[in-house]
Design goal:
Shape: elongated
Radius of gyration: 45 Å
Distance between the termini: 93 Å
Low-confidence stretches: 99-149, 298-323, 709-721
Helix content: 55-70%
Number of helices: 21
C-alpha cells in the first residue's frame, strides 16, 4: 500500500463524521468481488498494526518521563511539608513574643485554657465546634499542657467516646494515644457517587478510625476501619453541585470519599488531618534522631536494694551493659517507606524486595529499641501491601497468556519475602486455571483422533512447561513444594481424563479408535519421564473404568454377531468368486497370525472352511489386537475373561453341530472347521496374548486342552466323545 493511499485511508477513518456501517456499505457496492474486499481488509489491518506500534512507542517514550515527574512531585511535596513546618515554627515564635511582654495576660490565658479543658471542650487555638464535630488539643499546640491532669483528661475523653464504638477496645491499649478531632460524615461510592452510609470519624494522634452508625441504638457506632496516618493521603474534592463539601482519603490500594456537613467542617477536617500527620511525622523524626544521637552509659545505684538512700553517698554507678546504638538517621533509611511506596506503585517489585533485604542486613544482629520497632512496623505495612500486589499478579483473574514464565517475576519475589508456600499455592492455582482454559478453548473436530492429538499436545505441553518452570522457581526451597506439585499434577491429569473420556468413551467410538486415542495419550505421558515425572500409573488408574466398559461393550457386540451367524449356519464351503478376493483373504489371515491358511484353500476360489468360522477368526483376532493396545496390568483379568467368553461361543456351537448333524459329508466338513478352530486359531490367540502381555494365559491353555475333537463312527449315527 502506497504512502498516499495509507494517509488517505487514515484521514478517512479519523474524520469526525466517520460511520463504520455506511463506510462498509459503500465499500461493498464499489468492490468488484471478494478479492477487493480482502485487499481492503489487509490495508485496514496494516494501518491498525501501524497505529498500535506508534501508540506503544509513544507510551514507552512517555513512561520514563512520567516516572521522573512522579519522583520530582514526591520531592517537591516533601519540600513543601518542610516549608510548611518552618512557617508553623515561625508563627509559634511570633505568637510567643506578646506572652513574654505581658506575663500577666499570658497567665490569664493559661488559666482560661485550663478551665476550658476541665469543662470538656477542646481549645488548642481553635473555636469549639458545636453539634457532632469537636476539636481536642492537638499535639504540640500552643496551649497544650503535656503533664498531669491534661494527659489524664485526654485519655478519659478518648475512653468515653470509644466506649460508644463496638469492636475497638484494643485501641485503648496503645500508650500515648489520644483523640484530636471527631465528627459525622456521609460516605459516597467512588465510581458512581452514590450515597453508601453515615459514618463517624475519630481522628487520633496516630490513626483515623471510621465507625458506622447503628440506627437501632442512638448515639452508638460499630467499628468499620482503622487507617494509620503515615499511610494515609488526604485529597480535596472539587465541588460539583449537588456533590459538594467532599474530600477523599487514599489508602493504598483503596480509596474512600466522605462528605462533611458544610464547607467549614470540611475545611477543618482537611486542616486538622494535615496538621496531625505533620505532628506525627515530626515526632517520629525526633525519636529517630534521639535514638541515633550518642548517649552516655546508663547510671545505676550501687545499692539497688535501697531506693531511698542518698545518691551522693554512693560511688558512681557502673553500667551493667552498654546498649549498642542503631543509627537510623541514614538518608536511605529515612526515605525507605516512601521509596517502597514508589516501587509498589511503579510495579518495581525487585527494587522493593532489594530495599527490604538491604534493611534486614543493616538491622541484623542489632537491638530493637522503640525507634527500630516503629520503623519495622511501618515497613511491615509496606510488605503487606507488596504481598497483596504480588498475590493479585498470580491470581487466575489476571491474564493467563504468556505461559508459566509470565509468573516467574511475582513467584520469585514472594519466595524472597519468605512466602514460599503461598507462592507455590498461587503458582499452581494459576497454572490449573491456564490448563483448564486451554482445554476449553479447543475446538471439537469431527474426527475424534484429530481432537485427541490436539488435546494431548496442549495438555502435556502445558504440564511439561509448568514442571520445568516449577523446578526453576522452587529449586532449593522446601521439598514440601514438590509434594504439592505432584498432587497438582494428579488433579490436572483428572481434568485431562474428563475431557478425554467425554470425547472417546461417552461418544461410543469403536474399539480401534479408542485404542488409538489411548495409545496417543500414553505416548505423550511417557514424554514426562524426560524430567523425572512419571504419571503413567495415574492415567491408568483414571482410565481403567472407561476401558473396562469399552471392552465389555465390544465383547457383547462380537458375541451377538457370532450367535447371529451361528443361527444361519449352513455348513458350506466359501466361494470367493475371484482370485483377488481369495488373495485378500489370505493376506487378512496372515495379518491375523494364521500362517498355514493355504492348506484350507481348494481349487479355483474355494475355501474349505465355513464363512462363520472365518468371520469369527478375523473378528476375534481384531478384538485381541485392539485390546492389547489398551492393555495394562489392571485390565489383565478383564481381557482374559472376555476372550474366553468369545471363544466359548464358537467352540460350543461347533461341538453342538457335530453332535446334531447326521449327514456324513457335512459332519466331515464340520470336523475340518473344528480342527482349524482348535489346532490353528486357539494356539495363535494364546501366542499373541502371551506376546502382548508378557506371560502365558493358563485359562486359554485349559480351554484348548479341555476341548477334544469329537470322533464320529462313519457307520453309525451315534456321536462318541
Amino acid at each position: 500500500m502506497s504512502d498516499s493511499g495509507a494517509s488517505r485511508l487514515r484521514r478517512q477513518l479519523e474524520s469526525g463524521g466517520f460511520e463504520a456501517r455506511l463506510y462498509v456499505k459503500q465499500l461493498s457496492q464499489q468492490s468488484d468481488g471478494d478479492r477487493d474486499l480482502q485487499e481492503h481488509r489487509q490495508r485496514i489491518q496494516a494501518l491498525a498494526e501501524e497505529t498500535a506500534q506508534n501508540l506503544k512507542r509513544n507510551v514507552y517514550q512517555n513512561y520514563r518521563q512520567f516516572i521522573e515527574t512522579a519522583r520530582e512531585i514526591s520531592y517537591l511535596e516533601s519540600e513543601m511539608y518542610q516549608l510548611s513546618h518552618l512557617l508553623t515554627e515561625q508563627k509559634s515564635s511570633l505568637e510567643s513574643i506578646p506572652l513574654t511582654l505581658l506575663p500577666a495576660a499570658a497567665a490569664a490565658g493559661a488559666a482560661a485554657a485550663s478551665g476550658g479543658e476541665e469543662g470538656g471542650g477542646g481549645v488548642g487555638g481553635r473555636d469549639h465546634l458545636r453539634g457532632q464535630a469537636g476539636f481536642f488539643p492537638s499535639p504540640g499546640g500552643a496551649s497544650r499542657d503535656s503533664s498531669g491532669p491534661g494527659e489524664e483528661g485526654k485519655q478519659r475523653t478518648l475512653t468515653t467516646l470509644l466506649e460508644k464504638v463496638e469492636g475497638c477496645r484494643h485501641l485503648l491499649e496503645t500508650p500515648g494515644q489520644y483523640l484530636v478531632y471527631n465528627g459525622d460524615l456521609v460516605e459516597y461510592e467512588a465510581d458512581h457517587m452514590a450515597q453508601l452510609q453515615r459514618v463517624h470519624g475519630f481522628l487520633m494522634n496516630d490513626c483515623l478510625l471510621v465507625a458506622t452508625w447503628l440506627p437501632q441504638r442512638r448515639g452508638m457506632y460499630r467499628y468499620n476501619a482503622l487507617y494509620p496516618l503515615d499511610g494515609l493521603a488526604v485529597v480535596n474534592v472539587k465541588d460539583n453541585p449537588p456533590m459538594k463539601d467532599m474530600f477523599k482519603l487514599l489508602m493504598f490500594p483503596e480509596s474512600r470519599i466522605f462528605q462533611a456537613e458544610n464547607a467549614k467542617i470540611k475545611r477543618e477536617w482537611l486542616e486538622v488531618l494535615e496538621e496531625t500527620k505533620r505532628a506525627l511525622s515530626e515526632k517520629r523524626r525526633r525519636g529517630q534522631e534521639e535514638a541515633a544521637a550518642p548517649r552516655g552509659p546508663p547510671q545505676v545505684t550501687s545499692k539497688a536494694g535501697n531506693p531511698f538512700e542518698d545518691e551522693d553517698d554512693g560511688e558512681p554507678a557502673v553500667p551493667e551493659a552498654e546498649e549498642e546504638k542503631v543509627d537510623l538517621s541514614v538518608e536511605w533509611i529515612q526515605e525507605l517507606p516512601e521509596d517502597l511506596d514508589v516501587c509498589i506503585a511503579q510495579r518495581d517489585f525487585e527494587g522493593a524486595v532489594d530495599l527490604l533485604d538491604k534493611l534486614n542486613r543493616y538491622l541484623e544482629d542489632k537491638p530493637s529499641p522503640p525507634p527500630v520497632k516503629e520503623l519495622r512496623a511501618r515497613v511491615d505495612e509496606r510488605v503487606r501491601q507488596l504481598t497483596e500486589v504480588l498475590v493479585f499478579e498470580l491470581s487466575p483473574d489476571r491474564s493467563l497468556r504468556g505461559g508459566p514464565k509470565a509468573t516467574r517475576r511475582a513467584v520469585s519475589q514472594l519466595i524472597r519475602l519468605g512466602q514460599c508456600t503461598k507462592a507455590c499455592e498461587l503458582f499452581l492455582r494459576n497454572r490449573a486455571a491456564a490448563v483448564h482454559t486451554a482445554i476449553r478453548q479447543l475446538r471439537i473436530e469431527g474426527a475424534t483422533l484429530l481432537y485427541i492429538h490436539k488435546l494431548c499436545h496442549v495438555f502435556f505441553t502445558s504440564l511439561l512447561e509448568t514442571a520445568r518452570e516449577f523446578e526453576t522457581d522452587f529449586a532449593g526451597t522446601d521439598s514440601g513444594c514438590y509434594s504439592a506439585f505432584v498432587v497438582w499434577a494428579r488433579s490436572a491429569m483428572g481434568m485431562f481424563v474428563d475431557a478425554f473420556s467425554k470425547q472417546v468413551f461417552d461418544s461410543k467410538e469403536s474399539l480401534s479408535t479408542a485404542a488409538e486415542c489411548v495409545k496417543v495419550a500414553k505416548e505423550h505421558c511417557q514424554q514426562l519421564g524426560d524430567i523425572g515425572l512419571d504419571l503413567t500409573f495415574i492415567i491408568h488408574a483414571l482410565l481403567v473404568k472407561d476401558i473396562q466398559g469399552a471392552l465389555h461393550s465390544y465383547k457383547e457386540i462380537i458375541i451377538e454377531a457370532t450367535k447371529h451367524r451361528n443361527s444361519e449356519e449352513m455348513w458350506r464351503r466359501m466361494n470367493l468368486m475371484t482370485p483377488e478376493a481369495l488373495g485378500k483373504l489370505k493376506e487378512e489371515m496372515k495379518s491375523c497370525g494364521v500362517g498355514n491358511f493355504e492348506q484350507y484353500t481348494g481349487d479355483d476360489c474355494w475355501v474349505n472352511l465355513s464363512y462363520t468360522v472365518v468371520a469369527f477368526t478375523k473378528q476375534t483376532m481384531g478384538f485381541l489386537e485392539e485390546a492389547l493396545k489398551l492393555y495394562f496390568p489392571e485390565l489383565h483379568m478383564v481381557l482374559l475373561e472376555s476372550l474366553v467368553e468369545i471363544i466359548l461361543v464358537a467352540v460350543q456351537h461347533v461341538d453342538y453341530s457335530l453332535r446334531c448333524e447326521q449327514d456324513p459329508e457335512k459332519k466331515a466338513f464340520i470336523r475340518q472347521n473344528a480342527s482349524f478352530l482348535y489346532e490353528t486359531v486357539l494356539p495363535v490367540v494364546e501366542k499373541r496374548f502371551e506376546e502382548g502381555v508378557g506371560k502365558p494365559a493358563k485359562q486359554l491353555q485349559d480351554l484348548r486342552n479341555a476341548s477334544r475333537l469329537i470322533r464320529v463312527n462313519p457307520e453309525s449315527t451315534t456321536s462318541v466323545v
